[in-house]
Hints:
Chitinase A, domain 3; four-stranded antiparallel beta sheet; 2 domains; alpha+beta; five-stranded antiparallel beta sheet
Amino acid sequence: MTTLSSAAYRVGGEQGSESMPTAAAAAHRTIPPPYMMRHRLPPGWDIRESTSRPGKFYYFNVHTQQGQWEFPSVEMLPPTRRKNSFGYRPHDQETAHVLHILKKHRGSRKPRSWRIDGEITTPVEEAMKELALIREEVMRQEPRGLAAMTKCFKDNARIESDCGTAKRGGDLGEIARGRMQPSFEKVAFALSPGTLSPIIHTESGVHLILRLK
């Protein structure tokens, strides 16, 4: 994490002092204006502007009274306050952090995709062949470790996945049991962290899943 030092800050036109990232560290960091980012912050965080470097914004924890340049991650929250896409969850509920690539076909429940105009007419066999090629590409990265597999998977997901999560590299975040289609969930939770699934079928289409943790 970036080294912190004391600096002035501006909040609602008033000044005060608190722990702030150094000016040197700020030189190469630009955070979007607060109105663009506040809705994405975990509870207890705010965005504030440095008076020593106007136009530079940092993240401020209202509980610890500490500032930082890095976007606050969900791991910085107490377990009972961490979110998945379905809201807050109990800290002891089993979850799996997974990435996925979805290939739809003409038999999919909703045969439409952001990637093409009109309805998808691809046969399921063709969708499976395309996914098999992606799987081979990701598996070739296995000797280099999970980071290499993850990068390869995300790069393919951004281009090839028919799911709305494509823009996030197929990242579903932490999913809890009972939230996904049963056939998808069964495979996702059976995978060991760092492993890639075979091609699986759901009502949505055919999928690849990479479990991160």
